């Protein structure tokens, strides 16, 4: 069955990669994402399941993560020959990849940190050494909007972020780096730069639109507002509200006494922020309501590890990343040792009251260093691992959980799990130990004097186990614990051993390039295969033990059968580090030095025919397949254990030959069992006592509650009776007041009705007078409109006549110019040689002119930049003033609201005491004030009427003055357009030169690429020859052994000749030189052809440039003549009889553009006609809008 029908997909990963920036994020309340191996893991906390986003092929590992604020997009940066950023859509199926971003022309090997904008449209990324360039992306368009160098070799950058409310503001922090950067006009520039104390800024976060809080290596928290230091404190001291200078002095004194902890991460949330405070500690800070600062409200610590040899080691971990769930209910963090911790913030609130709040593991405890050993057993679904972090862990690959673990004093190099799953054999640096697996502990049972055991394995029956000690393999009895056999024969260290199914044979491989098959009963070697050029690292055997698969340092997979290597499968650009063969004999798995897993079919292919999967971020050290062929387990130097599900193309598990049933029995000591039973009895007795005590307390509380209820009932009944009496009294008073109010209202209504009738009669008379005036004004407006239309008709007739005259005149001139142009072309052909001699002088003049123009515009650009900076400073000052005024307005509004409430209370008291008398007086007073207001309003209307008449006269005068100023402004506009056209021509010349330079650079790059390819091929040929020479030397050495036997010597020499001297090799050597000569000849011919084409193109471009300059000069002279004619026409029309009536239209109509084209003249005339019509309509509408009133309008001006 082909390997293409067998698929291995990641099922679960135990581990986490700590070296990734921002390596823990919440997608939602139940899902977190973190890096593990060369994958991003989406872990569901409720279902305890994982989904994976694999890294890119040939990636050197993940570098940083960034989650968009809407939690939809995930950006992943990966290190490699060319650093790349992949953006994934987490809402799409299978986490669809949206975009891939690279540094483009800038050589970037890695992006150390990233951040999204608040609307998820923009992405910033910081590249690493040596350039430390900040990129600002419109990532959906894969476009770099701007770049800026922010760090240096001695000033690395650790974190970048974007303002949560403004996409254009960026904060960058690092070693001696804290910069606020503004994106404007297509570039990134630092703003509000002030001299700051040099600190190692490890972290920062935005608290608001203007406020940023930063943490330093010396344990300081610094709050900046608009780039200015506003607040400072030491993370281990109380909040300071003094000025920054005094606070800094106190912090320096405290730092001398004790070294403060590092603030490696800060995370803001709605109530304040959380930050790390040295090893194993996180502080919660809340914003103070009465002061502009923060106070420390809670402390959270990592608890000691009870299973560790040194429990305090867990508290020495430093947090490298923190995140808060969307509902702000859970805080999760990752440490520098690859552990994940979480805590409910409600538990942190409890910690405020004095109890110590502690983190819990988010999932399980992981390895923090290279995993050196891996083993499974037949009777249980568990897997055992050991690591250089001195821990031994037992995992369950079906429930995806950690069963038990323990840390020791020495490093563990190898591990073997007994087939029953009740014992493990661990090789430490000092001894080999046999340990019992208890329900919650791992205890030493027996020790063996085998130092530095790098490999050990139980036999399939479990009655024997083998342990490697350098070059010797010791076999011990599991029953008597005696050393029953020793296998000696390797000249190098043994790297891997494996038992056959019937335990009768043992296969080993070593650094000496030997693969031996041993008989475990006689301790004799039954077969061997030695290849001294390869140091073997791992082996696997077929179920019948007839075929051995071995991998080593020569980058090939070898199939060994009957003492010979029958097939080699090259690994191409990686090295095979581990191999595993399924019990069904259908598939072979290999692990590589890049951390990938390859699936191959069996029989092995002769060419590349495998499927490769991204798994780990470091070389794989061990791999094993479970006994039912359902799972593949791999471990690597990155400290991760990956469980792979082996399935077919239809995503179903492989069919099992027979069912495997796992046992659930565990070991427990008699002492532990007795202690557990005794504790159960004590707890049961305590439960009974608590039941009786609680029942008694409930009865006492019930009696007390009944008494309190009776007392409260009597009290409330008395209050109800008193309230009823008060209600009756108030009701009588209310009825009396309603009757009095009704009588007063009737009197007021009568008086108001009479006044209303008087006002209506007066208003009607005024309305009639104003209507008569309106009719008169409308009649005048109609006459005025007819006069304007007559003037417009006269203007159009004159315009048409002038346009026809100009058209005829310009057509005649155009014919003359065309004739002159033809003559000039003839002369140009004759004077071509003269122009070629003048090219050098013209180029020198042009260069000098370009330098002058460049200097001029650089001065202008500098002046504009200075003006822009001055305006930005003024804007910052105005913003500060505006914010202070806003605060003052808010304070005044609060005071006003308080006064208003007090005033309402006083008004209520007055109404309740003197309601009748004061009410009547207030009504009389209000009526008097109403009459006075109406009189005052009438007087104000008269004054406004006179002011409006004066204002209208002034406006009409200003309109006439502005009309006279239009003509010089339009002339200046024409001059500016001509200047802009010249600048555009110069810009075109610069673009052509840039294009020519880019072509030259492209050609040089192609040559460099061809040279590099030739170099690579030559180096590969040298390596191949070295390998061939080495093999020839080895074979020649074997021939020397038959120096005393001529016949055998002759046969071996013939075999050597047939192996290394072949006819096709001789032919190929001769052909290679001819091919190389032909290739060189063709390349020289192509280079000469390209050079000729370039020279010809340069000559053509120079001729075209000269011709274009000549035509531009002629067009300039024609434009000047057109302008002279226009001025003459304007002078003639200004002295016409109707010049006084049409002065304003003619002034605007006769202003022609520099192009002199008739279509533009017609368009300008149409615009002027529309403007005059609009002015007529405005005059008419002005009179129509005037409402009938006592206003006196001035006479209309003609």
UniProtKB/TrEMBL annotation:
The EML-like second beta-propeller domain, residue ranges: 372-646
A UniProt-annotated Pfam family: Beta-prop_EML_2
Gene3D superfamilies noted in UniProt: 1.10.287.1490, YVTN repeat-like/Quinoprotein amine dehydrogenase
Keyword Glycoprotein: no
Domain of life of the organism encoding this protein: Eukaryota
WD repeats, residue ranges: 364-405, 487-528, 613-646
Coiled coil (UniProt feature): 670-930, 973-1007
PANTHER family named among the record's database cross-references: CILIA- AND FLAGELLA-ASSOCIATED PROTEIN 57 (PTHR32215)
Name of the molecule in the record: EML-like second beta-propeller domain-containing protein
Organism the protein comes from: Anguilla anguilla
């Amino acid at each position: 069955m082909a390997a293409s029908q067998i698929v291995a997909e990641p099922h679960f990963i135990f581990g986490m990669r700590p070296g990734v920036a921002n390596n823990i994020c919440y997608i939602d309340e139940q899902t977190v994402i973190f890096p593990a191996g060369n994958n991003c893991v989406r872990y569901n906390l409720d279902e305890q399941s994982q989904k994976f986003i694999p890294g890119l092929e040939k990636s050197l590992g993940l570098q940083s993560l960034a989650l968009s604020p809407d939690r939809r997009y995930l950006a992943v940066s990966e290190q490699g020959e060319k650093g790349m950023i992949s953006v994934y859509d987490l809402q799409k199926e299978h986490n669809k990849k949206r975009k891939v971003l690279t540094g483009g022309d800038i050589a970037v090997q890695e992006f150390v940190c990233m951040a999204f904008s608040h609307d998820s449209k923009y992405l910033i990324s910081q590249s690493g050494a040596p350039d430390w360039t900040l990129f600002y992306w419109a990532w959906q368009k894969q476009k770099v909007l701007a770049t800026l160098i922010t760090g240096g070799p001695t000033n690395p950058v650790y974190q970048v972020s974007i303002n949560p409310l403004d996409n254009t503001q960026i904060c960058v922090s690092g070693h001696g780096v804290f910069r606020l950067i503004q994106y404007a006009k297509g570039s990134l520039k630092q703003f509000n730069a002030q001299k700051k104390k040099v600190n190692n800024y490890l972290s920062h976060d935005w608290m608001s639109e203007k406020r940023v809080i930063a943490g330093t290596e010396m344990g300081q928290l610094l709050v900046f507002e608009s780039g200015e230091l506003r607040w400072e404190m030491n993370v281990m001291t109380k909040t300071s509200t003094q000025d920054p200078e005094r606070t800094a002095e106190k912090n320096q004194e405290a730092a001398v006494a004790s070294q403060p902890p590092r603030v490696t991460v800060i995370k803001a949330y709605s109530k304040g922020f959380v930050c790390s405070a040295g090893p194993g500690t996180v502080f919660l800070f809340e914003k103070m309501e009465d002061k502009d600062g923060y106070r420390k409200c809670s402390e959270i610590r990592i608890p000691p590890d009870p299973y560790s040899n040194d429990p305090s080691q867990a508290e020495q971990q430093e947090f490298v990343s923190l995140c808060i769930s969307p509902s702000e209910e859970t805080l999760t963090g990752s440490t520098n040792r690859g552990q994940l911790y979480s805590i409910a913030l409600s538990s942190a609130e409890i910690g405020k009251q004095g109890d110590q709040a502690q983190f819990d593991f988010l999932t399980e405890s992981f390895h923090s260093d290279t995993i050196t050993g891996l083993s499974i057993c037949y009777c249980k679904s568990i897997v055992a691992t050991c690591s250089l972090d001195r821990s031994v862990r037992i995992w369950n690959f079906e429930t995806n959980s950690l069963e038990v673990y323990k840390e020791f004093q020495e490093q563990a190099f190898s591990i073997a799990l007994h087939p029953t799953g009740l014992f493990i054999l661990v090789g430490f640096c000092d001894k080999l130990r046999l340990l019992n697996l208890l329900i919650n502990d791992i205890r030493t049972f027996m020790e063996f004097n085998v130092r530095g055991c790098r490999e050990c394995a139980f036999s399939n029956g479990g009655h024997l186990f083998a342990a490697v000690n350098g070059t010797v393999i010791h076999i011990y009895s599991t029953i008597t614990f005696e050393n029953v056999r020793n296998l000696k024969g390797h000249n190098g260290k043994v790297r891997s051993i494996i038992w056959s199914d019937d335990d009768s044979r043992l296969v080993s491989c070593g650094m000496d390039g030997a693969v031996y098959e041993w008989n475990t009963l006689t301790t004799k070697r039954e077969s061997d295969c030695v290849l001294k050029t390869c140091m073997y690292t791992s082996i696997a055997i077929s179920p019948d033990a007839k075929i051995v698969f071995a991998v080593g340092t020569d980058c090939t997979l070898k199939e060994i059968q009957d003492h010979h290597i029958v097939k080699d499968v090259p690994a191409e650009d990686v090295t095979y580090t581990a191999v595993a063969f399924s019990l069904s004999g259908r598939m072979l798995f290999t692990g590589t030095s890049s951390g990938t897993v390859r699936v191959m079919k069996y029989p092995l292919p002769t060419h590349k025919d495998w499927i490769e999967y991204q798994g780990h971020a470091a070389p794989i050290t061990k791999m094993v397949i479970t006994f039912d062929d359902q799972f593949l387990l791999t471990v690597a130097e990155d400290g991760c254990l990956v469980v792979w599900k082996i399935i077919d193309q239809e995503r179903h598990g492989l069919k099992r030959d027979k069912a495997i049933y796992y046992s659930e029995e565990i070991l427990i000591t008699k002492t532990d069992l007795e202690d557990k039973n005794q504790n159960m009895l004590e707890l049961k007795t305590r439960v009974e006592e608590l039941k009786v005590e609680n029942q008694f307390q409930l009865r006492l509380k019930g009696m007390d509650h009944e008494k309190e209820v009776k007392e409260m009932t009597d009290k409330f009944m008395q209050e109800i009776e008193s309230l009823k009496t008060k209600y009756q009294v108030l009701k009588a008073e209310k009825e009396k007041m309603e009757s009095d109010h009704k009588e007063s209202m009737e009197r007021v209504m009568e008086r108001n009705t009479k006044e209303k009738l008087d006002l209506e009669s007066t208003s009607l008379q005024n309305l009639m007078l104003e209507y008569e005036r309106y009719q008169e004004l409308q009649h005048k407006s109609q006459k005025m409109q007819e006069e304007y239309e007559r003037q417009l008709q006269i203007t159009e007739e004159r315009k048409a006549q002038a346009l026809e005259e100009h058209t005829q005149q310009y057509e005649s001139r155009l014919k003359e110019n065309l004739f002159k142009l033809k003559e000039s072309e003839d002369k140009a052909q004759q004077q071509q040689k003269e122009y070629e001699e003048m090219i050098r002088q013209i180029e020198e003049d042009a260069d000098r002119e370009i330098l002058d123009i460049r200097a001029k515009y650089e001065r202008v650009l500098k002046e504009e930049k200075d003006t822009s900076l001055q305006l930005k400073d003024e804007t910052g000052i105005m913003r500060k003033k505006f914010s202070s005024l806003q605060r003052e307005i808010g304070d005044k509004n609060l005071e006003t609201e308080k006064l208003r409430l007090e005033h309402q209370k006083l008004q209520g008291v007055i109404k309740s005491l003197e309601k009748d008398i004061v009410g009547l007086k207030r009504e009389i007073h209000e009526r008097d004030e109403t009459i006075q207001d109406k009189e005052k309003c009438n007087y104000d209307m008269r004054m406004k009427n006179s002011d409006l008449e004066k204002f209208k006269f002034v406006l009409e005068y200003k309109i006439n003055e502005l009309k006279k100023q239009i003509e010089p402004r339009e002339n200046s506009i024409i001059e500016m357009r001509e200047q802009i056209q010249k600048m555009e021509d110069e810009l075109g010349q610069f673009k052509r030169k840039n294009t020519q330079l880019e072509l030259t650079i492209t050609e040089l790059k192609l040559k460099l690429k061809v040279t590099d390819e030739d170099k690579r091929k030559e180096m590969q040929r040298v390596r191949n020859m070295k390998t061939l020479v080495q093999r020839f030397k080895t074979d020649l050495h074997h021939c020397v052994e038959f120096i005393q036997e001529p016949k055998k010597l002759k046969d071996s020499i013939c075999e050597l000749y047939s192996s290394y001297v072949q006819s096709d090799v001789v032919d190929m050597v001769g052909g290679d030189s001819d091919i190389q000569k032909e290739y060189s000849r063709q390349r020289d011919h192509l280079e000469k052809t390209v050079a000729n084409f370039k020279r010809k193109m340069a000559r053509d471009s120079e001729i075209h440039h000269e011709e274009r300059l000549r035509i531009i000069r002629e067009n300039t002279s024609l434009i000047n003549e057109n302008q002279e004619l226009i001025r003459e026409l304007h002078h003639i029309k200004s002295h016409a009889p109707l010049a006084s009536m049409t002065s304003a239209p003619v002034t605007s109509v006769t202003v022609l553009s520099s192009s002199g084209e008739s279509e533009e003249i017609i368009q300008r005339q149409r615009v002027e006609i529309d403007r005059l019509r609009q002015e007529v309509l405005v005059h008419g509408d002005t009179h129509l809008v005037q409402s009938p009133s006592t206003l006196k309008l001035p006479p209309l001006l003609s």
